[in-house]
Every structure is written in C-alpha cells, then in structure tokens.
Amino acid sequence: MVADWSMPILVVDDHRTMQAIVARQLRDLGFREIDTAGDPVTALTMMRQRHYRLILSDWNMEPMSGIAFLETLRRDPLYAATPFILVTAESRPENVLAARRLGVDGYLVKPFDAAGLRAKLAAVLGPF
Fold first, then answer.
1. CA 108 to CA 74: how far, in whole Å?
2. What is the predicted pLDDT for the residue at 117?
3. What averages of pLDDT result for each successive group of 10 residues across the chain (128 residues)?
4. Which H, E and C letters describe the chain, residue by residue?
C-alpha cells in the first residue's frame, strides 16, 4: 500500500491527550483525514459510517481492548486487510506475539516520537 495523504485514518485511544498527539503527528506528516475515538465500541460505530484505510489503536481500553478490537476487525471482510497498528505501552514479548498471531501490521511502543511513528507507518504503508 502506498501512503495516500487523503486516506481516512482512525485513531482509537481512551486518553484524549494520546489521541491528540497521534492525530497531530499524522497531520504533521501530511495526512489530512484523521478521526479519533475513545474506545473500540465507538470506533466500530464510526466504521459503519466511514471506511477507514488505516487504524491506530491503543491496547488497554474498556469495554473492549485493542487486541479484541483487532480480532473483531480481522473477522470482518470489509476490514480484514486494513492496516492496523497497535500504539501501546504493552511491550512484553508475549503481547507482541499475540498481536502478530491476530494479524497486526505494526506495533509501536509508547512513548514514541514523530520519527518512530513515521518509520512504523513507512513499514506498514510503504515509503512516503
């Protein structure tokens, strides 16, 4: 996949500050269509109204975790192949392996900087 600056991106995190940080860094990189959700249940509702081409999600959220959100999307034909990046403090090897088994496309450990986000996006979307 090649980065498309106008592709719809969804950032899912239960902390508004983290939503804002990720969205700002995406905009700074040139992406223009960024929406945010405070939890995966809200995100799923939003996804019925707009088709997102990239999802960045936290792991630890309620009432559904980011890993459960990933698993749900991988079973949905509309989103099964959509690039999904976990942006999380969960850095234990068993968590990374569990995410990989479920089909995560990228794993970015908090805290991160703009260069780290850019590198992860390039690995998932291709150079831009």
1. 19
2. 96
3. 84 97 96 98 97 96 96 96 94 91 95 94 91
4. CCCCCCCCEEEECCCHHHHHHHHHHHHHHCCCCEEEECCHHHHHHHHCCCCCCEEEECCCCCCCCHHHHHHHHHCCCCCCCCCEEEEECCCCHHHHHHHHHCCCCEEEECCCCHHHHHHHHHHHHCCC
Encoded amino acid at 123, one letter: A
pTM: 0.94
pLDDT at 90: 83
